[in-house]
Amino acid sequence: MVTDWHVEAIERDGYTIVEDAIEPEFVEALAADLARLEHDLGTAPAENDFEGRQTLRIYNLLVHGSLYEAIPVHPNVLPIVEQVLDPGCLVSSLSSINIGPGETAQPIHADDQLIPIPKPHPPTVCNTMWALTDFTEENGATRIVPGTHKAQSPDYGTFYGSIPAEMARGSVLIWHGSLWHGGGANQTGERRIGIAMNYCAGYIRQQENQQLGIPPSLVRGFSPRLRELVGYGVYNGLIGHIDKKNPARLLDTSGVESESDNGFGDTMIWDDS
What we know:
Largest sheet: 6 strands, antiparallel
Number of strands: 9
Distance between the termini: 43 Å
Strand order of the largest sheet: 1-7-4-9-3-2
Order of helices and strands: HEHEHEEEEEEEHHH
Helix content: 10-25%
CATH architecture: Sandwich
CATH topology: Jelly Rolls
C-alpha cells in the first residue's frame, strides 16, 4: 500500500519523497566511501553550467566497489520504480553529485528531453536522488516544477519558477523522467551530497553504457537481479537477446541463467521467422 501511494503521487505530481528510506549506517558508509573516491580519483568540477563548476561528480559507481551494488536493488526504492516503469527496467546511470558552496542553480530540464518522442508520454525514465546529507533550499536541494511531467520539455536556459524538494538525510526523491527539475544553488558553507540512481525502461538506451562500462568479471559477482538491471537480460522476451539466448549465459560458464523469476528469461525469446 505504501508503494502504491508513492506511485500515485508520481503519476499525479511527477515526484515523491520516501522518507527514512535508507539505513543510517548505509548512508554513513556511502558518504565515507565517496569522500575516499573523490580523493583517490582526483575528482574535479566540470567546466559547464549543467554539471556544475563547484560540483564533484563520480560516474559509473558500480565499478568502484561492492558497496554500491545494494543501491539499484534497494527494497524501499526499486519496487516503486518497477511500478512507474515495469519489472524490465534497467540501470541507466549511477553517480554521485556533491554540490559545493557557491554553486549556482542548474538550468531547469527534463531527464528525457533528448528522447525524440512526443510529450506527454508514458514514463521512459524514472530517476532517484539519495540524500546523504540533509537537502535544504539553502544548500541546493533539487528544485522541481510539480505537474510538468505532463507538459512539453522546458526551454533549456530559461528561468522557471520551482520549489525545493527538501528532505532529511537518508530520504530518497523519486521522479518521472519528464518532470522539470534542476539542482539548486548552494548558499551555505557546507556540501550537499547525493547519489543519483537513474533507471530507464527496458526498451530505452541507457545513459551510461553498462555492458561496456562494467567488466564482465565484476558483473559475475552481482546478484541475479542486479545483473538484469545492468542489461544482462531480455526485455519482453525479445529485446536484448544474443542469437535468441539470454546474454546472462555469457557470465556463467555453467550456462545457468538468472535465478530471478520476473518473466524475462531465455524461455520467452520469440521466434519471428
